Fold these 3 entries.
Entry 1:
Amino acid sequence: MTEEKPLHSPLGASSAERWMNCPGSVALIKELKLPETDEPDYRKNGTAAHEVAAQCLRGEQDAWEFVGLTVAGVEVTVEMADAVQVYLDVCRTIPVTPDSKIYTEFSVTAQQHPLFYGTLDRAVVTGEWMHVRDYKHGEGIMVDVEDNPQLMYYA
């Protein structure tokens, strides 16, 4: 019998800053049986925003086209669409050539460890360059991109 992997990896990119600085936190969280987040609405809104972004990137659409629609069980608001559109505009500045490989909401794994897995929001690989973009839908939470452990994990 194979053990089923959790939806979010305990050694995933989104928590890389924590577990890289404190490897023992992974075992502690597992032992305490702590939930992924205390706020399921934040997670639902983030999932919906990611889905809108992915559909827009794949379908050459803008986020405002989803306002009022229900995506992943959440109604897309003007505020959500505005936030997603900022991400879309940044993603669309990445140079793309005919030989570029484009990845949107792409599952990643690493042979080095069975718990290294997750979903890459957006990457474009052209020649020796890889451009990685990660959408954050949290409200009021600043994330530094310089030397960002999550982006380095994906790279």
Entry 2:
Amino acid sequence: MSSLEIVEKIKELAQKKDAVILAHNYTRPEIQDIADFVGDSLELSRTASRLSSKVIVFCGVRFMAETAYILSPDKVVLMPDPLAGCPMADMITASQLRRLKEEHPGAKVVCYVNSSAEVKAESDICCTSANAVDIVKRLDAKEIIFVPDKYLGTYVSKMTGKRLILWQGYCPIHAMMRADDIIRMKQEHPRAKVVVHPECPPEVTDIADAVRSTSGMLRYVKETDAEEFIIGTESGIIYRMEKENPEKRFFPVRKDTICINMKKITLEKVLNSLEKDEYRIIVPDEIRVKALRSIERMLE
């Protein structure tokens, strides 16, 4: 079957099964093209929760599909590749977080949405990369535990002036970026604005023109007058940037900023997912209800 035939079959099945297809900004171009909605993880899950669609096909990584189920337990949530995981989310478990809480009784736990449902369930409040600074700023607590991303936590600490107890997790893609990479790219493209993700190390965020979440990056490049941009995040987002801003040019900080987990989702796997109702993501109710509470506190 050709790619075109697969795409037609996906559209036909999605309509027949009342399914909405969600794709993260880091997925393959062809996956973004077939999606009903492209965006960041929580934004997509919230969008799906407001739709009447019976089925959600989440093209991303596991914690994203779990979040979609947490917000929409009445819907069938499918993940085209069950092995598409997030290394950072896997760097902390619920039992590890419980032990950390025991070491700091009374501390409030802020949990980055890039974490498992079990970790969310052990947390007081969730945050995204876009709202983490505001969430921590407003939190009235003597001690704040921030999990799992040490680099986002470091950025939040700097922006709020609050000392955080950081878990030593990180995103391997963002962690590989260095100040030298930015300096080299600025020499090659002196007129370009540098916009990076707050999951990058401090030496990178400190010298960037802007630090933004993925959705924030998309707005920044659209609203800023510059014609060239150096992008410090997973390079898959550049496809959408070029599509939405054809008159502008975009360069990745490094050419190897590719998340293999995000790229595991293919057209063939999306078709298989719709044909066989695979692979269903379900979060047990005792975990889902607690995790939902931490997400709802953030939304409040």
Entry 3:
Amino acid sequence: EGRKRFLSPAEIGRLGEALKAAERGEVRVEKEARGKGEGSPVPWQAIAAIRLLIFTGARKGEILTLGWDQVDLEAGRLTLPTSKTGFKTITLNAPARAVLANLPRMEGNPYVIPGGKPGAHLVNIKDGWGAIRSAAGLEDVHLHDLRHSFAAMGAGGGESLHLLGGLLGHRQSQTTMRYAHLADDPLSAASERIGAQIAAHLEGGDG
């Protein structure tokens, strides 16, 4: 079976605190193995990429190679001519649009998440992610689990699996079905509400 690790609401809160600490320069990428002491702050590019990953449910490669010409903030979407599943459109929610709107555009670099080399995109997000997840106490969480967390939050909130498949760019419904069990919670809540109303009427109340 595929990996099914996703963040709980409390864990998402811890990740948020770690991201804010990283933005303040308080989370550092360890360089001890290289004999360079306490290391350097997590680069803003890695922080932005992580925020976009969890807000969109996109794959790592889709965000790291994203070009500004593929971003339409007014329409609220990303248009990816090539992805793992071919042509793909990613719908942007308000938090994702806010992240993109506040990112600097580097002259001569077409990428949303620029790298260290001129005209290149960020390649190494592993070190930055490792520092942030450690600060959040989420050492067992992989970067791809942010995509699972986006889907899990939707399924747990009652979004249909068909809609989730569209948001994630799944070509086959079976891929989205891994989140089907998470939809049990809103179904159970709805059943409880209906049952309570019926029970009240059976007892002669007004519901």
